[in-house]
Structure formats: C-alpha cells, structure tokens
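Review this fold:
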Amino acid sequence: MAVETITETTQYLTFKLEDELFALDIGKVREVLDFTSITKVPQTPDYMRGVINLRGSVVPVVDLRLKFGMAMAEQTVNTCVIIVEVELEGERVVMGAMADAVQEVMDLEPDQIEPPPRIGTKLNTDFIKGMGKHNEQFIIILDIDKVFTTGELAMVQELEGAAA
C-alpha cells in the first residue's frame, strides 16, 4: 500500500531504533512484550535472534536494528518485542520484532505522510510505506509485510516447525 492509497487517518505504534523513530500500522500489531529470554537457533542470520514461547506457540524474533544494518544494542529496561502479523503468500505469520523502546500509539492524517524518499535504484526501500511528520520529527512508517523477503519468511516458518 503506497502513500497514495493512505486516504484516512490511521493509528500507528511508534518505536525507537537507535535515534530514529519508526511506526507500524496498529492493525498489524498483536501485542507488545517486555524483553524475555530468546532461544537462539543455530545457523540463522544474526538478525534472527531466535524464538520465544508465547502462550505455548513458538514465535521467531527478529532484531530490527540488525535487519536494518544498525549496530546491535545492549538490552535495556525499555527493550521490547513487538508481536506482529505478517502476510506471506496469503498466509499469516506471527513474528516478534525487537525494538529499543515503544513510544506511543498515534493518529496520522494522510496530509502528515509523504512518500518514501527515492534513494537511487540500488537500495530497496519498498518496505517504507511513507514518512510521517509529527511535532517536527520524521517517523519512518514501515510496511511490515515488505520488511522481510519471501525467503526470510520461509526460514521463519521452518524455525517454527523445527522448534515445535
């Protein structure tokens, strides 16, 4: 869904990674958890932190900082896991996304959102739905369905199957 298709006020969950503010459509967010112990799964990329037990279900957890090429951070009292639903070939996949801190749920009007920046042809910015503006601060609005490639999500499903 590109910015042109954002025609109504939408609620977003905002969160921090390093000094940047990001947002997810609240409709994709199931819940926010305090950071808990994560079981590392061998032979997975660094950004795949492992799996957690969420009320009896195996949920893979991805470190968004590492996924976006940022440095790994020490976990703090604010570190959390945002449980999201991602669409994979018409199927819903539940995942955890590690963030430095959750900020707030906010409404953004269509006129507060601009198209994602064009950064040349080499960089893939399809996962950026738009750039929100709130109190003179930019908010990078993510399209969580496009943050991960089909191959990465297939690996997530394999992780769930192997850990179950």
Summary: The longest strand covers residues 80-88.
